[in-house]
Structure formats: structure tokens, C-alpha cells
Design goal:
The complex is a heterodimer of chains A (about 475) and B (about 475).
Chain A lengths: L16 H9 L10 H11 L2 H9 L3 H4 L7 H7 L1 E9 L2 E8 L4 H11 L3 E8 L16 E3 L2 E6 L18 H21 L5 E5 L4 E6 L2 H4 L3 H11 L19 H18 L11 H8 L7 H12 L7 H15 L14 H19 L5 H5 L5 E2 L31 H10 L15 H34 L3
Antiparallel strand pairs in A: 1-2, 1-3, 3-4, 3-8, 5-7, 6-7
Chain B lengths: L6 E3 L14 E4 L2 E5 L8 E3 H23 L4 H15 L3 H14 L4 H21 L3 H7 L5 E2 L2 H6 L1 H4 L16 E5 L4 H5 L4 E3 L2 E5 H26 L8 H11 L23 H4 L5 H13 L4 H13 L4 H12 L5 H15 L14 H6 L12 H4 L2 H10 L4 H12 L3 H12 L18 H16 L8 H7 L6
Helix pairs in contact in B: 1-2, 1-3, 1-4, 3-10, 4-9, 14-15, 18-19, 19-20
The chains are: A alpha+beta (about 475), B alpha+beta (about 475).
The complex binds zinc ion.
The site of zinc ion has 7 residues of chain A, from helix 7.
Chain lengths: ~475, ~475
């Protein structure tokens, strides 16, 4: 069974061997932000078991607390796989196929295990904890949220802020903001999904959980199709000839509309990734133009090098685009040189879009999305390397989200100690987790459960109509 | 054979998994396209059952062959169209044969995959040819919402920004439909459609791929369902149809006039004895029965006579041979009176002048078993284990070979047992030049032709002259 572990890469796989050894011998470098003791307090006082339970039950009655009735939702929870990573004598043990029937069961098990990480798997046809007593192959996933995983490590070739690997800064976090905006728009507008939860992965990435009933019931082929729909192969060092197909699909057109302003504000300026900020960087960029556009690069290079023009990177970008347009005869009364072929014209026309995409388009870890049975880290966990909580992200304020100000365990303990306000229902309400958790409840959980309620009612009426029992 | 009078329902009950309205588009007699969601309920004779199944098998094997050879699209379409015209000329044969083969090919994963692949190619071919796709979809309750003019205009720039979209000139006359994106996954994957709020906007031409996907999924499900249920069938018909279905995938559909492939010396009354060693067990039993009793009963005369005809024996030689044997217990006049006509009839020289083809193994296996004094039938099917073991022993087949043959026989695989017999007595036949094992175990004439080639190659001469003695004695064994 151990060989079946499909680990989400956030934790473990991408860490260097040295990191892994270090984590065994001494706790974490930021000892003040994370420790097993702090984690234990987090699980006993702050972890929002009620939110996790309410969500994974897909049971509207959890909203009112009236859960005495045995509803279909309760059985969804009990067939859900939970996996935990626990530390025993310095070794990390991965425990799969756990399942729980009630919120109290979850809380008891988690508090007892004090896991470094909790993963959420699929809902199966049987309770996964019984997997050993089932004949081989009998346990089959039957539903699962459609999930997406974006991680900054996949952006290393284009990060030009000094960060690499696990390190992040405000400049490179912008990549995550862009990915979230593009994916959120695509999933809602194109696929009509409504119930999306965006979660900070605790260090350098984000996860998206699409929880609409239709999404949860999708098979692997449908998941692959949706993932492929968003997948764009961009020119890279390895594959310089990857080009966007023509015409540009409406989804990509919209993505470009979202991304170009970010490209201008975060990628090209000096205080961003500096793509057009210095002579060295713009020369490098001009060299990526199709060969047929050489006259344009030569002219602009010469112009920008002379000190007469102190144009900003944004002005340079507009100037470059205009020069290309006019070169291929797409603007004003200019005419394209006769020796430029149609296919070259097309390449030149697409170059600005491809360039924007190369530096901004979401780089998804597509395999996470394709399989129903792929485990993904639970929201509300704490990342052991940073001590930060995997908090829900408010898409309305996504540009303001700063991963470096997400509360750490140490900070939360201080906030608990310093709290002097009124008594509250949940202790997390005393801390800076309040905003993110309440947002999750009000903007994601409640609307989603209301939709579940509506569809349950419709289902009941349909059944009643069939048996004539109105 | 009197099976022609028995009738049999083509639909094997456990295969019924869906029941919607009739869904066939027919044009000029030929089937245009059919989703096969409606189980046919007409009566078929056992002969028709077999004939139709073989006809479709020929079509599916042709499809496989054309695809394996990477036949260009147009050539593929032309070849398939003519094959269809020849073998599946009307909707009855088409529907019946589809369901018979569905039952025959649902038994294992490999068979299902093969059948699904060929049937889907056939379906796509027909759908592409279909003159009225909209009508077809309506009949098959494929629910598509047509995009109205206003919406189409509103979305013009988006709809035309998709790979493979109609040109600006074609756009006004292109009909668009919207379907839930889950119905158009392949198009979604490749961004070959515009998506809005979970609906995929698709031009009519591309709807084809959706219908194909639906057909594939439906057929695949039905096959798996049938595969799980076929063995539970208690239908009394099942006991008769069962063996037929089981052997279907190994049916020989090659040329039945095998003599035409055989460049060796023609089979005559004079050399037939010498060639008896190349006959499969069923035929060598008939041969020795004839030699011993100097007569053959009706079923035996048909089975053996058509075999000889198939092996290239002319009507004259056929008559001479039978006359030589029969006249040992009757006068020439009696023979001519009683049997001359039926031999000429077999060769198409009397009566309807139909040309009768030699029996294939399925026909022999499914035929009535031999009773006292009869030598027809299939020894691997109709003999009991003890008799067959003894017979093989007398044929000097070693115990190892005998065990292998008997094992297959006991498992209810007469075809495989017969092929094993061939293998045992023709060591290394597979690597002998000119010997084709295709059809060995499925058609007595294929067995015979392969064996003759084998001896020819081994002995460097025709027909196995001079090796008659012991071989002939070995096969003079009673079957009872
Ligand atoms: Zn950075």
C-alpha cells in the first residue's frame, strides 16, 4: 500500500536532500514560527474543524448545526479519504486511507496525531478506512473536487527577482496573482463553475478547489480535458518553436487581456522583473523577435541605446508593439516589406502576445488536476517550513493578498495571548485568521451549501412527483 | 441439414440494455447509419444467424485490414462502401449481424476492444456519409440546442476565433449548436470549440465527433454489461447459439474454394486414398467409413462430398469415387438412380443449380450429432472422451499430443483441439514455406490444403504418393 502514495509536491519532493536531512535533525530554522508544540496548540484551539467538516460533508444542515438527521451528506464525509504526514522519532510517516464519520472523529484523530500535513483525497464507494477488508480493486473513487495546483518553482526560468526554489518575494508572488485571475475567470465564465475555493499553499503556491456538484462528479477523462483546455505550451529554452495557434482562442484572448496589464506593471519595469528595464535585458528580449523582424530590433535597439530617449519600460513596450504592427502593415498606411512571408507576418503579429504569455501565463501542475484519486493538501494546514497557515484567499482582493503577512503559528499564539475582546464562538475569531476564515464561510461555504440544498430539494420533488407523493 | 427449419431469435436476452425508439437512417436499402440502441426482434433461422454474422465479420475484418495498411481516406471509403454493399445489403442483416457479433465479442476484454474499434470506424464512416445528420440526431434523442441568430451574431468574433472555425464566408450559413461541455470533451481538450457558462458552441459538422463519442461510450458499456451477463443466460436458445457465438471470433472468412489456392495435383478418385492422410479427423472418419461400409448416409454424403468438391474434385471424379465404393454393395444402376442426382446437385448441375459451398467447422459443430451407422459431424465435438482418446491412440498420436488435444476438447474448444491435432501431426508446419495455417481449425478444407502443402514441401512431390499403406490403415478406425 505504501507504494501507492501520490504526494502533492508542495512538501517533500521539491525540497533538496539537504533540506530533508536538516528537517530531521533539527526542527525548522525559524523555530519561532513553527514547532510540534505550537502545532498541537493550533490543532486544539484554532484549527477550524467545523469549516472543514461542513465543507466536506456537502450537507446544508451543518450550517444550522441541526445534524441529527442522517442525510446523504454525512455518508459523503465518511467515504472521504484523509491522509496525514506524522513525525515519529524523526521519521516522516505517510498514513493513507483514513476516514471519519463526524466532525468529532476528525478532531480527535488530528489532535492525537498532530500531523505535519493533512491531505484530502477522493470520496470512495466504501469508507477508505475499511480498505484492508475489501477485495483488491473494490475501493473506487466516485467523486472528487476538481483541483488545480500552481507553484512558483515552475516559474524559476522567468523569475528575475533574485528568488529561486522555495524563496518568495512580493515580485514573484505576482505570478500567483496572475494565475489565479486567469484560472478563476476561465473556470467561472467558460465552464460555468461557481464554487471555487482558492487556498494559499503555505509557502510558494496556491491551490484551487472547484466544488460544484458537476465538477466533483467528473471522471478522469473530463478532468484531463479541462486541464488541457487551460494548458498552453510556451516557447522555452528547450522548445523555441512552440507557437500559439492562430486564431487565438477566446479563452486565450481573455487571458491576454487580464495578463498584459500585469506584464506591464510587474514584469517589464525595474521594480518588477526588469524585462525592459536595462539595456542588457531589452537587448535580450529583442533577440527573441522572429528573424524577419530584424529591422525593427536593430532600429529600436539603436534608439533605446542613445541617451536621448529616457522612455519608461511601459513606453518601450508600446513602442515595440507599434513598430511591429507597422512593420507588418497592420497600422496606419504602412506597407509590409515584400520579402516578409505571411507566416512570418503571423509570427510577428503573435510575438507580443506570446511574450506576455511566456512571462505571465499560469504554469499549472497539470497532473494534480487530471486524476480523481490525487491527494492534495487540506486548507487550514500549517506549512512546517514557514509556520504559515494555508488560508483561503479572497479573490475580490487577490491583488492585496501578501503571503509574507499570512499569520505564522508563533504570531497566532501571541494574538491568542494578547486577545482582550469579547468572548467568541471560535477561538480563531480572536486572531488574524478571522478575515480569511470568515470569508471562506460567507463567500464560499454558505453559497455552495445553499446550492446543495436547492438541488436536494429539486431531487426530492422529482422523486415525490414520480411516486405521486406531494 | 435441417437446421434451416429451426428458427431462432437473434437477440440474446441479456444483451438488452437499452430500449429507445428505432434509430436507423436508411437510404436506398443500404443502412446509412445506426446507433443500434434498439434490439431487433425478428426471427432468424440458424443458417441466417451464421450467414449474417459471417457477413459482418468480413466487413469488420476488411476495416481492420484497410486501417492496418494505412489506406488513404478516400480509398478507405471506396473500399468500405463496396464491402458494405456486398455483405450487409439491408438493414435487417445489418442490425441482426451487429447484435450477433456483439454477443460473440462481449466475452473478453480483447474481443470487446477489437469489436469496438472496428464498429466505431464503421459508424464514423456511415455518419460522415449520412445525408441528414439532424434528422438522425433527433431520432436518437441527441439533445442539441440550436444557437439562434441573435446569439450567433453576438458571439461571431468568438466563434470564429476557434481552430477549424468556418471562414467568414461560410459563417453565415453555418449552423451552431450548444451542448454541455461534458459531451464535447475532445473538442474542449483541444480548444476546438467556444465555451460559455459550461456550454460548448459547436458547428454542425463537428457535432459528428460528439455523436461518435456517444456511440463509442454506449457500445462499450453495452459490451461490458453483456460480457457480465452472457454466461448467466438461461434462455433455452442459448444452449444452441452459445457454441456458435463462442467460435465466432475464430471463424474463417477467407476463400472457401481452397482448391483454387492449391497448385498441387487435382484430387481424383484415383488419388483420394493417398490424400486421406491430409484430411482432418472429421473427413478421414468419413473416408474410412465409406471405405469400410461402402456407403454413407445422407448427412455424411453432404459433409464429405462438399469437402471433396471444395478440395478440387470434379463432379466426374466425385461420381467415379463414390460409384467405386458404393457398387461394392449395389449395382451401378442402383447407385446412379439413388445417388447420381444428388452428386450432380451438389455440383450445381441439377435442380436450382446453386453452388453449394463446403461446410465450415461451425456448421459441422452445430449440426446434428451422428447416430448409429453415421460418420458425419465433428469428432472433437460429437465423440465422447473415451472414443476420441482411443481413436487418437490408434492414429499413433503420442500421449503428450493426445493429452493436449483432449484437454482442449474437454474444455469445449473443438476448433482449438482440431488445430492442435494439425500441429501435432505436422511438426514445424508454421515454418514450412507455402503452408498457411489460416483457417486450420475453422475449415476442413483449410486443414486439408495446409496438410497437402506440408507434405509437398517435405517430400518434394505432389499428393504423398506411395506413402499410402500404413496411413490408410491407421485411419480405418471405428468411431463408436
Ligand atoms: Zn521573488
Amino acid at each position: 500500500m505504501g507504494a501507492q502514495v501520490e504526494e502533492e509536491h508542495e512538501f517533500g519532493v521539491n525540497d533538496t536532500a539537504a533540506d530533508a536531512v536538516a528537517s530531521k535533525t533539527k526542527p525548522i530554522n525559524s523555530v519561532t514560527d513553527f514547532s510540534p508544540e505550537l502545532l498541537s496548540i493550533y490543532y486544539s484551539r484554532l484549527f477550524p474543524f467545523e469549516l472543514l467538516h461542513s465543507w466536506l460533508s456537502y450537507d446544508p444542515s451543518t450550517l444550522t448545526g441541526n445534524t441529527t438527521k442522517q442525510l446523504a451528506g454525512a455518508s459523503i464525509l465518511s467515504r472521504r479519504e484523509f491522509s496525514t504526514t506524522v513525525q515519529i522519532h524523526g521519521d516522516e510517516i505517510y498514513k493513507r486511507y483514513q476516514s471519519f464519520s463526524t466532525q468529532a472523529d476528525i478532531a480527535t484523530a488530528i489532535r492525537k496525531q498532530n500531523p505535519l500535513k493533512i491531505d484530502i483525497g477522493a470520496v470512495f464507494n466504501y469508507a477508505p478506512k475499511d480498505h484492508k477488508s475489501l477485495p483488491g480493486g473494490k475501493l473506487q473513487p466516485v467523486q472528487r473536487e476538481l483541483v488545480f495546483d500552481v507553484d512558483l518553482t515552475d516559474y524559476d526560468p522567468i523569475r528575475n527577482c533574485g528568488c529561486s526554489g522555495a524563496a518568495i518575494c512580493g515580485k514573484c508572488w505576482k505570478f500567483m496573482v496572475m494565475a489565479m485571475e486567469v484560472m478563476d475567470a476561465g473556470l467561472r465564465e467558460d465552464f460555468g463553475f461557481k464554487h471555487l475555493a482558492w487556498i494559499y499553499s503555505g509557502r510558494r503556491g496556491v491551490h484551487c478547489w472547484v466544488c460544484d456538484e458537476g465538477a466533483r462528479e467528473m471522471g478522469n477523462d473530463a478532468r484531463s480535458s479541462v486541464a488541457s483546455y487551460f494548458e498552453v505550451s510556451l516557447a522555452s529554452e528547450k522548445n523555441k518553436n512552440a507557437h500559439l495557434p492562430h486564431p487565438l482562442h477566446p479563452m486565450l484572448r481573455r487571458a491576454h487581456k487580464i495578463l498584459e496589464p500585469h506584464f506591464i506593471s510587474s514584469i517589464i519595469p525595474e521594480d518588477g522583473h526588469g524585462l525592459l528595464a536595462t539595456q542588457a535585458s531589452w537587448t535580450k528580449l529583442l533577440l527573441t523577435l522572429p528573424e524577419a523582424a530584424n529591422p525593427v530590433s536593430i532600429e529600436l535597439e539603436k534608439k533605446w541605446r542613445s541617451n536621448k530617449h529616457h522612455s519608461s519600460p511601459a513606453e518601450k513596450w508600446e513602442e515595440l508593439k507599434a513598430a511591429l504592427q507597422s512593420f507588418i502593415g497592420k497600422s496606419g498606411n504602412s506597407k509590409a516589406p515584400k520579402n516578409v512571408s505571411n507566416s512570418d507576418k503571423l509570427k510577428i503579429e503573435h510575438w507580443p502576445i506570446e511574450t506576455v504569455f511566456k512571462y505571465t501565463y499560469p504554469r499549472l501542475d497539470i497532473n494534480v488536476s487530471k486524476g480523481m484519486n490525487h491527494l492534495l493538501k487540506s486548507p487550514f494546514c500549517v506549512h512546517p517550513k514557514t509556520g504559515r497557515v494555508c488560508v483561503p484567499i479572497n479573490m475580490e482582493l487577490v491583488q492585496e493578498f501578501d503571503p509574507l503577512t499570512v499569520p505564522t503559528l508563533r504570531q497566532l499564539m501571541n494574538e491568542l495571548d494578547e486577545y482582550a475582546g469579547d468572548s467568541v464562538g471560535h477561538e480563531w475569531q480572536k486572531t488574524s485568521l478571522k478575515g480569511a476564515f470568515e470569508h471562506f464561510q460567507k463567500k464560499f461555504l454558505n453559497p455552495m451549501l445553499n446550492d446543495v440544498r436547492k438541488s436536494q430539494r429539486a431531487e426530492r420533488e422529482k422523486r415525490a412527483a414520480v411516486v405521486g407523493d406531494f | 441439414m435441417n437446421v434451416a427449419n429451426r428458427s431462432s431469435r437473434a437477440a440474446v436476452s441479456p444483451l438488452a440494455s437499452s430500449s429507445s425508439a428505432a434509430t436507423t437512417a436508411v437510404k436506398g436499402g443500404l443502412v446509412e447509419v445506426d446507433m443500434y440502441t434498439d434490439i431487433p426482434s425478428f426471427e432468424l433461422s440458424l443458417d441466417e444467424f451464421e450467414e449474417f454474422a459471417l457477413a459482418r465479420l468480413k466487413v469488420l475484418r476488411k476495416i481492420e485490414e484497410l486501417k492496418t495498411r494505412n489506406t488513404p481516406h478516400e480509398a478507405f471509403r471506396t473500399a468500405l462502401a463496396s464491402t458494405l454493399k456486398q455483405h450487409l445489403p439491408n438493414p435487417k442483416i445489418d442490425a441482426a449481424s451487429h447484435y450477433i457479433l456483439r454477443a460473440a465479442y462481449c466475452r473478453t476484454e480483447d474481443l470487446r476492444r477489437w469489436f469496438l474499434a472496428q464498429e466505431c470506424k464503421l459508424f464514423s464512416f456511415r455518419l460522415e456519409n449520412c445525408s441528414n445528420i439532424r434528422e438522425f440526431m433527433k431520432a436518437n434523442s441527441i439533445d442539441l440546442e440550436r444557437v439562434d441568430k441573435t446569439e450567433k451574431e453576438r458571439l461571431r468574433s468568438k466563434l470564429t476565433s476557434v481552430i477549424g472555425a468556418p471562414s467568414p464566408l461560410e459563417f453565415p450559413s453555418t449552423e451552431y449548436y450548444k451542448v454541455p461541455f461534458m459531451e464535447a470533451l475532445r473538442l474542449v481538450s483541444n480548444r476546438e470549440c467556444y465555451l460559455e457558462k459550461g456550454m460548448a458552441y459547436i458547428p454542425l459538422a463537428k457535432i459528428i465527433s460528439i455523436v461518435e463519442a456517444k456511440y463509442r461510450v454506449g457500445l462499450s458499456k453495452s459490451l461490458v454489461f453483456a460480457g457480465h451477463n452472457i454466461d448467466n443466460a438461461t434462455d433455452e436458445e442459448h444452449s444452441r447459439i452459445g457454441p456458435l457465438l463462442k467460435s465466432m471470433n475464430s471463424q474463417y472468412t477467407g476463400p472457401t474454394q481452397l482448391s483454387s489456392l492449391d497448385n498441387g495435383e487435382a484430387l481424383t478418385a484415383a488419388n483420394v486414398d493417398a490424400n486421406a492422410r491430409s484430411m482432418p479427423l472429421c473427413m478421414s472418419q468419413l473416408h474410412s467409413g465409406l471405405k469400410r461400409d461402402h456407403k454413407l448416409k445422407h448427412q455424411g454424403r453432404l459433409q464429405y462430398g462438399l469437402f471433396l468438391k471444395g478440395a478440387g474434385m470434379t463432379m466426374e471424379e466425385h461420381t467415379a469415387f463414390f460409384q467405386r465404393e458404393f457398387t461394392k454393395i449395389m449395382t451401378g444402376e442402383q447407385f446412379n438412380k439413388q445417388y447420381g442426382y444428388s452428386i450432380r446437385h451438389m455440383h450445381g448441375k441439377e435442380g436450382k443449380r446453386a453452388s453449394y459451398t463446403p461446410y465450415n467447422c461451425m456448421k459441422i459443430v452445430l449440426g446434428s450429432p451422428p447416430s448409429g451407422g453415421e460418420h458425419h459431424g465433428c469428432p472433437y465435438k460429437h465423440y465422447d472422451d473415451e472414443n476420441l482418446t482411443a481413436l487418437l491412440g490408434k492414429l499413433k498420436i503420442g500421449s503428450e499430443g493426445r493429452d493436449a488435444i483432449m484437454k482442449l476438447k474437454r474444455e469445449g474448444n473443438p476448433n482449438l483441439a482440431c488445430a492442435k491435432h494439425f500441429e501435432v501431426v505436422h511438426g514445424g508446419a508454421g515454418s514450412v514455406e507455402g503452408v498457411s495455417l489460416e483457417g486450420v481449425g475453422n475449415h476442413p478444407n483449410a486443414w486439408f490444403a495446409a496438410s497437402r502443402k506440408y507434405y509437398e514441401a517435405k517430400e518434394g512431390g505432389g499428393g504423398g504418393k506411395g506413402s499410402l499403406g500404413s496411413g490408410s490403415k491407421e485411419i480405418e478406425v471405428m468411431a463408436e
